[in-house]
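Continuing the batch. This is chain 6 of the set; chains 1 through 5 are on the previous pages. Same settings as before, nothing changed between runs. Recording input and output for traceability.
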Amino acid sequence: QVQLVESGGGLVQPGGSLRLSCAASGFTFSNQFMRWYRQAPGKERESVAHISPAGSIRNYADSVKGRFTISRDNAKNTMYLQMNSLKPEDTAVYYCNAHFITGTDYWGQGTQVTVSS
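Output for chain 6:
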């Protein structure tokens, strides 16, 4: 079965960095577009970044451009989100997502990122 497991969240001070990981299994990871989403308290879930199967196409939300970098290692079936210059408004639960052409969405359990002094 499809599994997505996020890790790497935590508490960090403003201006700090974190790297999130998403370990995937149960499908052909190297064929799949992958996305990071986040959901802050009281807000809707929003797309943060996505990456094409080979990693050649990467897109970001305006709010994270220049600070976050999405990447993947297809040999390890893992996607990453390097987050630099973190701001309090980046505080959210971060989820990885695989959207299949069948229309089915798969989500991880999420990892909490808290940016606070």
